[in-house]
Amino acid sequence: MLVKPLLSFSLAILLSLTTWVQAQENINATVSQAWQMLDYLATDYAGAVENGKVVNPAEYQEMQEFAQTILGYVQGLPQAEGHQALVQQSQELVEHVQALASTDVVAAVAHELGDGLLFVYPIPTAPSHAPDLAQGAKLYQEHCTACHGVSGAADTDMAKSLEPAPIAFTDVARANQRSPLSLYQTTSQGVDGTSMKAFPELSETQRWALAYYVGSLAYTSQAAAGAQLWNSDALIRAQIGNLNELSRARAEQLFPVLGEEKSQQVVGYLRAHPEELAEAETGLALARGRLQASLRAYQAGDKQNAITLALSAYLDGVEPVEPLLNARAPKLRSQIELSMGAYRTSLSKDAQQAQISALAQQVDDLLQQALAVVEEGNYSAGAIFLGAFTILLREGLEALLIIIAILAFLNRANRPEVLPYVHLGWISALVLGVATWVVARFFIDISGASRELTEGFSAFFAAVMLLSVGLWMHQKSVGDAWQVYLKEKMGAAMGKNTAWFLFLLAFISVYREVFETILFYAALWVEGQESMMLAGMLSAGVLLALIAWLLLRTSKKIPIATFFSASSALIAILVVVLTGKGVAALQEAGWIDVTLAPLPAIGWLGMTATWQTAAAQIAVLVVLVLGYFYNKRNQ
């Protein structure tokens, strides 16, 4: 009975993945073109408008065309969270250009729109490894010197004959506004209406090498000073943590924190030596650096940058090593989450600097403890086995209880025709979970925020559905409601809507746990001892199967009313747990404040020591209690 639906679903998944890849390529191309235009407009608008007057009509007309084209590109992108805001920003950009707004205003709007575009519709924005500057220099001499000159000053005879004139890469003011990504996009796509052509004959690696070399020419004399700064100041190293950040970084972005001179020196050094990022601080060391940078930014009056750095300290520094901390020091991991959340909340509420400094010191002490735990060395074979076993057992048991409750209900209701929908739901979740790992591993990078948001919203969704199922089950356990229900439904199969509802509930419940489990196993895999990890997974899988068999067998012997009462009670507990986990995940993503409370933290109940989690779980308990008395009253 299940083979045909599974075959159909597998074919649908294959077709969907193929369609998704094609659609993603089209989206990436649109985003790439729109981003390049935004970058070009932000930089070159100054050559068209000055002090509210058009100084170059041809250039100004091009800026207007670019703004309109960008608006069309953004409007044509598929709907997503944040899409409407991007459309509105695009419309504002068109209005600013038409109104002859100042260069600073147009550049700020264009850059903000570009950053938002990459956030809502992520595309690859960095090379896979550090570019080879020697290769970049060679490619520059072969392809670029005729127009841009040997030194990049655009002082050749050919340059003088071209209109518009080629860019002088030694112009520091202009270089401050460009990132290696913008130079890479220009090399890849060219610039319409100019002599700058695309270089499709160069490989992606070669174009990145060329972009980094060109981007370093304006800062040649400042690189030595940048090396000293980079090697001596943790605050500076906290500003740029990897190649992705370096590839998108403009020197002017660092001005508010480092000042213009130091920003140019650091950017010049890193563009000339991108291999430094291979040894840059990562994980907990990065978290400590960004925490310190956040504190300094707050002390300097830059509240928004302080909040951004604090969130990055968790998502980019702590989140990647959470699986290791969970296995070795789960209590410490929980303390770090709560403390960093409380620190971010205090920043957003304009707390006194003394309080902020104390909180930052508390978080840093915890991070140092975690760093010592992580650096203890690789896991032993026994630790790997135990970690893999407990992870799957813990995450799998929660989903298993939900699936068993549904299956037991269908068996007791004599509805075998609906069982394939439930099985299809949890099997689909397993398949999609593996597909998620493949996509995240080989195609895109799932950020810390995206992981937390996926876990948070899926937990809320499952909690809402379970709440309705649990109240319904309790209703059928009261008085003779079950016998009445059987008389009404015995002659007819459940509707398609109900069957697909159960499919969705099974899918969401299992996918959330699979998603989280995959993150843990990915961290364990790099520790080695793969055979012990697989043995732990297999052992946990066998134990879960045994538990499922025992629960299903036991459920057949329990009286109907007792079965429904027990099932509704179990589901009520799971609703409370999932609500707590959903709030905690959104707190980690920075969507919900963190206010510490004198409450116990009980992970298996989804309880954390914050008022927000407690309030959400209490609200759910109130709904459950009201539903209980409502069912009793109407029996």
Structure, briefly:
This protein has 635 residues and is mainly α. Helices cover 73% and strands 1% of the residues.
Describe the structure.
The chain is an all-alpha fold and 635 residues long. Helix content is 73%, strand content 1%. Strand 1 and strand 2 (53-54) form a beta hairpin.
Output the helix-strand order.
Answer: HEEHHHHHHHHHHHHHHHHHHHHHHHHHHH
Helix content class:
over 70%
Q: Estimate the strand proportion.
A: under 5%
Going across the biggest sheet, name each strand in turn.
Answer: 1-2
Number of E-type strands: 2
Structural category is: mainly alpha
Report the total helices: 28
Largest sheet: 2 strands, antiparallel
**Estimated radius of gyration:** 29 Å
The CA-CA distance between the termini, in Å, is 38 Å
The poorly predicted ranges are 441-449, 485-493
What overall geometry do the principal axes of the alpha carbons give? elongated
Mean pLDDT figure: 79
Question: What descriptive keywords fit this protein?
Answer:
mainly alpha; two-stranded antiparallel ribbon; 2 strands; 635 residues
